[in-house]
Amino acid sequence: MPADLAVLGLEQLGLPAAQAATAAGVATVGFTPEHATATWLNAGRAPAGAALSAAELRRMLATGFRATSDPAVLGRVRTALICAPTPPGPGRAPDLGALRAVTETLAARLRPRTLVVVESAVHPGTTHDVVRPLLEYGSGLRAGRDFHLACAPGRADPGGRAPGSAPRVIGGLTPACTEAAAAFYGRLTDKVVRAKGVAEAEAVKVLETNFRHVNTALVNEMAVLCHELGVDLWDVVRCAETRPHGPAPFRPGPGVGGHAAPMDPGGRLRLVGLAREVNERMPRYVTERAAALLNEHGKSARGARVLLLGVTHTPDVPDLPGDEGTPAHEIAALLMALGAQLTYHDPLVARWRVAGRPVPRAVALYEAAAEADLTLLLQPHATYDLQGLAAKAPLLLDTRGATPAGAAHRL
User: Fold this and answer.
1) What whole-number distance in Å separates Cα of residue 171 and Cα of residue 201?
2) CA within 20 to 30 Å of 35's CA: 155, 270, 276, 289, which one?
3) What is the three-class DSSP state of 301?
C-alpha cells in the first residue's frame, strides 16, 4: 500500500507519531538511516528504550506500517514528519546533528506541495533558520510557495489514553502552511491549536518542558527541607493540593531525567538553570539517604545488597532514554561506587547495564526483597503490590511516595 505519510526518525517521538497516524488510518512509512533498526522493527521487535510495546508495534504492522532505510520512499509521500532526536549537546543546546541529517535526506527527494512538519524539540528559530534553508537548498523548492513547512512540537504521552489523543499545537511558515498542517493533524486528534507562527509553536515546547522541570525542582527542594525539619512532605503535598487553583500535582522523586531535557535558549532563563541544578542533585541525595538508612540499621553501604525497583523513566512504559542521565542509572552508578551489591527488578526491562556492567535481574521479586538489605523504589509500576513488598522488605526507601503511609521510609 502506498504511504501518505513518512515519519523521519523512529525514536522516542517518531514511533508514537507513527502509531497515532496508523491508528487514524493514515498509510505510514517510518524512515531510519539504520538498516538493522528497520529490519528489527519490521520483525515486530520494539527497540530497547522505546515508549512502545512489542504488541503495539505488531498492531501497527498489521495495519500497514513499515519501517525502511531506503530514502526513495520519501519522494512518494504527501506529508513528512521530522521526528529526529535532539539530545543536549555542547553547552546544553539541542544537538541538531540527527535533525540535519534526515532533513538533508528528505530535501533531495522533496516534491512540490508536500507538507513538512518539524516535531523534534528545538529552540525557537530552528525551523526557519535551519530546516527551511536545508530543504530549499537540497530541493530547489521554496518553502511557503512550493511546499508547506510547519512546526508541531511533539506531545508524546506515554501511558496516555490513546495514540495522538493530546491536542496539537501548530505553527506554519505562512497561514497556508498552518492550515495544511491543521488539516493533517485534524485526522489524528480532536483538537488543533493554531499558534501565531513557527517560532511561537517552537516556544510552546520550551515552556511546557521547563514548566515540568521548574515545578519538579521546587517539590524536590521541599523534600530535602522537610526531611531536615522532620516534616512529613507527603502530608504537606496532600494538604496543599486542596487549595483552589493551588499547586499542580507535581511530586518529588529521584530526579527528572527522561527524553525532554530543560530548554534554555541562549542561557537566558535563570529559573531553568537553577531547576536543572536542583534536579541534577537528586540522584546523589537519594543515594545519601539510602546509605544513611543502612547505617541507621547497622549496615554499611559497602557490601550491602540493594534491590532497585523500577528503572524505566515512566511508570508502566518500557522507556529507557539512554544509559546516561536517568535517575535510576545515576543512582545505581553511585551505589556501585560505594561498593553496594546491586540487583534490579522491572517487569518491562529484561536486561540493564550500568557503567558498561550488567546488573543482575531479580527473578523472584518477593524473595529478592526479603533478602535485600535495602529495597529502593524508583518507579511504582502498576503491577507492583507495594503493600506486599513493604511487608517483605526489611528496609524499603520509597522515592515516589507510592507506598501506604507508614509502610516504608519515604523521600
Assistant:
1) 5
2) 155
3) coil
Contact 312, 379 (CB under 8 A): yes
Q: Residue 193: which H helix or E strand, with range?
A: strand 192-194
State pTM to two decimals.
0.85
3-state secondary structure of 199: helix
Q: How far apart are CA 363 and CA 393, in angstroms?
A: 15
Q: Where are the beta strands (DSSP E) in 12-57?
A: 28-31
**Whole-number Cα distances in Å, 116 to 64, 121, 191, 383:** 22, 15, 20, 40
Place of cell 535495602: 374
Q: 347-382, pLDDT tens digit by residue?
A: 988 889 998 899 999 999 999 999 999 999 999 999
Q: Hey, what's the cell of 216?
A: 519538579
Amino acid making up residue 294: L
Per-residue pLDDT reduced to its tens digit, 194-209: 999 999 999 999 999 8
Per DSSP (E only), the strands in 23-152 are 28-31, 66-68, 79-82, 115-118, 148-151
* CA–CA distance, 379 with 319 (Å, rounded to integer): 12
**Bridge pairing between strands 168-172 and 353-354:** unpaired
Q: Closest Cα to residue 188, out of 320, 37, 5?
A: 5
Taking the C-alpha atoms of residue 340 and residue 174, their distance in angstroms, rounded to an integer, is 58
